[in-house]
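Regression test case RT-17, inverse folding.

Input:
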């Protein structure tokens, strides 16, 4: 293999990406870096899926044109990939593909024409015109069969998508169909001949039984009059291509299929076939539809389709925008190092299975594996080299005469036992990574860390240093530790590019880790006499209570509870004196604090009166709850938790309301949303802005994440909640 091509899915440009999206990119990035280290010319694709009704609707909601909507999301996306070191400038992806690129349209048109000319394995036309009648989920961009939706109790209502819990659209119109039903045997043959085509094996079995169950022809176009934001069907512009047909083809148009520009710049022949990394939720599109399209067009099959599991919230629900339980990238970026996030995601999630994401776990793992583990090994080793060897890597050999002394200190005179251990762990690491077993691979690497830590603790270099006769033993211990760090830097570079470069530099080494093949490492390669670099802490210990308090913006019991005024409304400035109060720019939210704080105080107050915690209806009637519509939303400079909203609650002028939800909601996603407003709260000033009410939100999970209360049906602004 001299070239390698890896892809992530291209992400819908309807909303901003979250951790679930970033995950595939981090995996692809680690894979690409590993291949590059091995000297394989690698092309890594990620990008945005910009067409379809989903993007059209998001654009409408945000008062943008579809292109503006796509540009907006892509802009955020590329900024985030840069912040996470995944972009080209940081040695990450080679192309951020956009399906609105003119060369893509050229390539897809060619692909469509080829399919249109093709005959199926049963000798019929692969593409035909027919009439589609059924249900479509805009969020999935997929047609739904009866077992994929929930039927409503009221038969006038449309059914709901089981994935997104949103209403389906009825489609009844002329459509082009791809004759998928003729491809079942060919697909089953493919899975048989190439057992690695779909990975992991459990997913391959799923796909096989799906195909064995019989395939239905697939509608691959919509009338332009119903979906206009998409590529026109070649030679029939009354139809728009089905967004998945358009999107899947990006994998080949990006490298030059059907267009000269990309062929020259990248090279289809050079890089195809690709390894497609996807989430298991979109496996069918990649492992059934895409191979069938490729068969029809006469294009070679991908190298493999590899599916990972889903990130779930601590309660076990899939993290998604629709459910409002996502981990936002800017929050992660603000509180954690990129390498810690990458390490955590690859170590904690067993590839292929689902994993739960909790900030606490991320902090715990960072502290145990990185701060106390790798980081500590690196700093103690380098500090001792500084102290006992004048900052130069010592020679590691032990002479005949000194062997007995070394043995007495518990150190093997020859290096073989440690070098064999490290070599074996390196081989296992590479083997596991090749099968996407990153979690196991990292366990192997951390077995090396543990082994060397044990050697150091057993040998006690600080005692050896007091005995001149033990100088060789001392030097041997330090050499072995430093040499191991060199190996770990090379091995772990694809997972933690920044920290490993740092360790490598602190060891006094200057080669580019991106170009060192771990398979070529030879024990003893670290030249004695190397002047080590400046020693810096790699992973400072994270203060869990402080970070959690900053993220939540609420008292979690570990820090002082912010004071509250008589209305129970928390203010920005009233954190208890001397407490680990949130920093000024992390002003806590009325919503979040009130979600927990106000509830507690009011309930307590009531308890005192009636003794049973129950209230009279008249008590409840004191709260004026109104339906509001968010007219505008923006961030407040230097207050990273607060959003400034204007909300129409049916009054002459919209209300200005401050809400502490900035870490969980993107302002533009709120515009047009119906919410519940407490309309008769005394106005309060925060950050120089008056808040004329409060919005209601559920406080979810351990983190107390706000999830805004909203309505499933259309309701007029100002309607009272009773
Ligand atoms: N646009 C299509 C893909 C077209 S590829 C030719 C799409 N986009 S998506 O934005 O909805 O999802 C992109 C990827 O993000 C999918 O692989 C999906 O599995 C992944 N994830 C979205 N939420 C996720 C989690 N909670 N956890 C892990 N991955 C998740 O589908």
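Golden output:
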């Amino acid at each position: 293999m001299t070239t390698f091509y890896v892809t992530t899915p291209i992400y819908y440009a309807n909303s901003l990406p979250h951790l679930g999206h970033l995950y595939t990119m981090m995996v692809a990035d680690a894979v690409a870096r590993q291949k590059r280290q091995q000297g394989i010319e690698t092309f890594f694709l990620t990008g945005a899926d910009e067409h379809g009704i989903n993007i059209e609707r998001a654009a409408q909601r945000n008062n943008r044109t579809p292109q503006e909507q796509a540009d907006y999301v892509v802009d955020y996306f590329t900024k985030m990939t840069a912040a996470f070191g995944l972009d080209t400038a940081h040695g990450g992806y080679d192309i951020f593909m956009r399906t609105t690129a003119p060369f893509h349209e050229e390539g897809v048109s060619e692909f469509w024409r080829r399919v249109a000319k093709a005959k199926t394995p049963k000798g019929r036309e692969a593409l035909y015109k027919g009439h589609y009648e059924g249900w479509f989920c805009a969020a999935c961009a997929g047609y739904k069969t009866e077992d994929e939706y929930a039927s409503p109790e009221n038969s006038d209502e449309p059914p709901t998508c089981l994935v997104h819990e949103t209403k389906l659209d009825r489609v009844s119109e002329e459509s082009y169909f791809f004759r998928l039903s003729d491809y079942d045997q060919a697909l089953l043959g493919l899975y048989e001949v190439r057992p690695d085509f779909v990975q992991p094996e459990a997913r391959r079995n799923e796909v096989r039984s799906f195909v064995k169950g019989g395939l239905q022809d697939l509608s691959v176009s919509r009338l332009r009059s119903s979906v206009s934001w998409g590529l026109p069907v070649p030679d029939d512009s009354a139809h728009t291509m089905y967004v998945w047909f358009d999107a899947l083809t990006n994998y080949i148009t990006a490298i030059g299929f059907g267009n000269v520009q990309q062929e020259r710049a990248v090279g289809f022949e050079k890089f195809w076939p690709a390894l497609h990394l996807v989430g298991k939720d979109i496996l069918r599109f990649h492992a059934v539809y895409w191979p069938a399209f490729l068969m029809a067009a006469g294009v070679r099959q991908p190298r493999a389709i590899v599916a990972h599991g889903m990130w779930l919230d601590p309660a076990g629900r899939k993290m998604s925008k629709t459910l409002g339980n996502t981990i936002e990238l800017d929050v992660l970026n603000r509180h954690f190092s990129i390498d810690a996030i990458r390490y955590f995601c690859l170590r904690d999630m067993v590839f292929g299975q689902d994993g739960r994401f909790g900030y606490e776990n991320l902090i715990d793992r960072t502290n145990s594996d990185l701060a106390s583990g790798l980081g500590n090994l690196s700093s103690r080793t380098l500090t001792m080299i500084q102290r006992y060897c004048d900052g130069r890597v010592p020679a590691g050999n032990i002479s005949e005469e000194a062997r007995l002394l070394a043995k007495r200190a518990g150190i093997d005179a020859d290096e073989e036992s440690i070098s064999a251990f490290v070599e074996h762990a390196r081989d296992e690491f590479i083997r596991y990574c090749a099968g996407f077993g990153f979690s196991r691979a990292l366990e192997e690497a951390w077995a090396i860390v543990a082994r060397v830590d044990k050697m150091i603790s057993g040998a006690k270099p600080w005692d050896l240093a007091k005995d001149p006769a033990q100088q060789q033993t001392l030097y041997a211990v330090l050499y072995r530790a430093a040499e191991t760090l060199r190996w770990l830097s090379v091995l772990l570079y694809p997972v933690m590019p920044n920290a490993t470069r740092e360790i490598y530099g602190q060891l006094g080494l200057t080669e580019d880790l991106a170009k060192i093949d771990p398979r070529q490492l030879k024990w003893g390669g670290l030249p004695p006499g190397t002047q080590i670099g400046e020693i810096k802490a790699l992973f400072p210990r994270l203060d869990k209570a402080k970070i959690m308090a900053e993220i939540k913006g609420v008292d979690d019991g570990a820090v002082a509870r912010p004071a509250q005024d008589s209305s129970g409304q928390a203010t920005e400035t009233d954190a208890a004196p001397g407490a680990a109060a949130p920093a000024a720019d992390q002003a806590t939210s009325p919503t979040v604090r009130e979600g927990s704080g106000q509830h507690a105080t009011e309930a307590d107050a009531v308890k005192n009166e009636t003794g049973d915690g129950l209230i009279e209806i008249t008590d409840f009637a004191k709260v004026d709850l109104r339906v509001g519509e968010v007219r505008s939303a923006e961030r407040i400079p230097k207050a990273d938790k607060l959003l400034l909203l204007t909300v129409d609650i049916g009054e002459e002028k919209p209300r200005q309301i401050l809400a502490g939800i900035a870490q969980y909601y993107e302002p533009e996603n709120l515009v047009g949303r119906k919410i519940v407003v407490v309309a008769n709260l005394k106005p309060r000033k925060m950050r120089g802005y008056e808040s004329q009410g409060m919005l209601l939100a559920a406080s979810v999970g351990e983190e107390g994440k706000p999830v805004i209360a909203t309505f499933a049906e259309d309701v007029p602004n100002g309607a009272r909640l009773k």
